[in-house]
Amino acid sequence: MSELLAPDILMSIITAAMGVATVILLAALGELVTERSGIWNMGVEGAMLFGCLIAYLVMAETGSPVLAAMAAMASGLAAGLLIGVMTVTLRVDHFVTGLGFNLLASGLTLFWFRSYVGGGKPPSYSTINEFPVPLLSEIPVIGPILFDQHLLTYAAFLSVPFIAFFLRRTTYGLETRAAGENPQFLEAKGLSVATRQYSALLFGSALTALGGAFLMMAFADQFRPDISGGRGWLAIVAVIAGNWRPVRTMIAVLIFAFLDSAAVHAQGVGVDIPYQFFLMLPYVASILLLVMIRSRSGQPAKLGVPYLKH
Question: What is the rounded distance in angstroms from the CA atom of residue 69 to the CA atom of residue 22?
Answer without folding.
Answer: 14
